[in-house]
Automatic annotation (TrEMBL):
<dbReference type="GO" id="GO:0034399">
    <property type="term" value="C:nuclear periphery"/>
</dbReference>
<feature type="region of interest" description="Disordered">
    <location>
        <begin position="101"/>
        <end position="254"/>
    </location>
</feature>
<keyword id="KW-0175">Coiled coil</keyword>
<feature type="compositionally biased region" description="Basic residues">
    <location>
        <begin position="221"/>
        <end position="254"/>
    </location>
</feature>
<comment type="similarity">
    <text>Belongs to the EBP2 family.</text>
</comment>
<dbReference type="InterPro" id="IPR008610">
    <property type="entry name" value="Ebp2"/>
</dbReference>
<feature type="compositionally biased region" description="Polar residues">
    <location>
        <begin position="211"/>
        <end position="220"/>
    </location>
</feature>
<feature type="compositionally biased region" description="Basic residues">
    <location>
        <begin position="177"/>
        <end position="190"/>
    </location>
</feature>
<keyword id="KW-0539">Nucleus</keyword>
<dbReference type="GO" id="GO:0006364">
    <property type="term" value="P:rRNA processing"/>
</dbReference>
<comment type="function">
    <text>Required for the processing of the 27S pre-rRNA.</text>
</comment>
<dbReference type="GO" id="GO:0030687">
    <property type="term" value="C:preribosome, large subunit precursor"/>
</dbReference>
<feature type="compositionally biased region" description="Basic and acidic residues">
    <location>
        <begin position="103"/>
        <end position="114"/>
    </location>
</feature>
<keyword id="KW-0690">Ribosome biogenesis</keyword>
<dbReference type="GO" id="GO:0005730">
    <property type="term" value="C:nucleolus"/>
</dbReference>
<feature type="compositionally biased region" description="Basic and acidic residues">
    <location>
        <begin position="131"/>
        <end position="140"/>
    </location>
</feature>
<dbReference type="GO" id="GO:0042273">
    <property type="term" value="P:ribosomal large subunit biogenesis"/>
</dbReference>
Length: 254
């Protein structure tokens, strides 16, 4: 220890502070973490936090040294034609800037992918719940149909449960109109098979049409009159003989 003190006394020079311009400060914390008592609040592996810690410490040192320089009447503003090269080259700073930008973009992509996974998971959950709800409704309706078929229930409420909103409104209006009409069984059959009812009856026979025989033709009725072209007639008379008959005709001609 005595040797260290001797070496220190040898290279120490008793100069004024304006000749040394040394400023010693402790770690300067980020305003958000000023209440933190831990000195290792800055992660040394995080390039951005480390660079920001150096920047804030240098800024605090400048703010501490400026009043002392002004008190000693030392000019602190550089002239307009003054040029000072930075400690780090522009190429090195550009590399740092690109690296920080790439890390920031990677974090944004990771966060976006995490949100997409969460949205897919939530959508799948909602879809599963909807399918399960439909299966439950279908099962309940089938049970209600079986009970109705076995005569254990006379309610047909399950018919209105499976309607879309637009169809439900129409069916609701129809049920309101037929409240005092047919019973539930008749309404169910009408919905299943149609309402039936009397048709137009334009082709039905009447007493007058049965007794009217003025348009009856006996020759046509018993195939004694001229036949229609579609069912014989000239085509039937000029029918070509078969192959064997034509061969016999050729042999006779020889």
């Amino acid at each position: 220890q005595s040797g260290l003190k001797q070496c220190l006394s040898e290279f120490r020079q008793p100069l004024d502070w304006v000749e040394r311009l040394d400023v010693t400060l402790g770690q300067t914390l980020v305003p958000a973490s000023q209440n933190a008592s831990n000195k290792d609040a800055v992660d040394p592996e995080n390039d951005f936090q480390r660079e920001m810690s150096f920047y804030r410490q240098a800024q605090a040192a400048v703010l501490d040294a400026l009043p002392r320089l002004r008190k000693l009447q030392v000019p602190t503003r550089r002239p307009d034609d003054y040029y000072a090269e930075m400690a780090k080259s522009d190429q090195q700073m550009q590399k740092i800037r690109l690296k920080l930008k790439s890390k920031k973009e990677a974090m944004e992509r990771s966060e976006k992918a995490k949100q997409l996974r969460a949205m897919r998971k939530y959508g799948k959950k909602v879809q599963t719940e909807i399918l399960q709800k439909r299966q439950r409704e279908k099962k309940n309706m089938l049970n209600a149909v079986k009970r109705y078929q076995k005569g254990l229930s006379d309610k047909l409420d399950f018919l209105d449960e499976d309607q879309t909103p637009s169809q439900g409104n129409k069916k609701g209006n129809a049920s309101q109109r037929t409240k005092k009409g047919p019973n539930a069984k008749r309404r169910y059959k009408n919905q299943k098979f149609g309402f039936g009812g009397k048709k137009r009856g334009s082709k039905w026979n009447t007493k007058e049409s049965v007794n009217d025989v003025s348009s009856f033709q006996s020759k046509v009725a018993h195939n004694k009159g001229p036949r229609k072209a579609g069912k014989g007639g000239k085509k039937a008379l000029n029918k070509r003989p078969g192959k064997r008959a034509r061969q016999k005709m050729k042999n006779r001609a020889r």
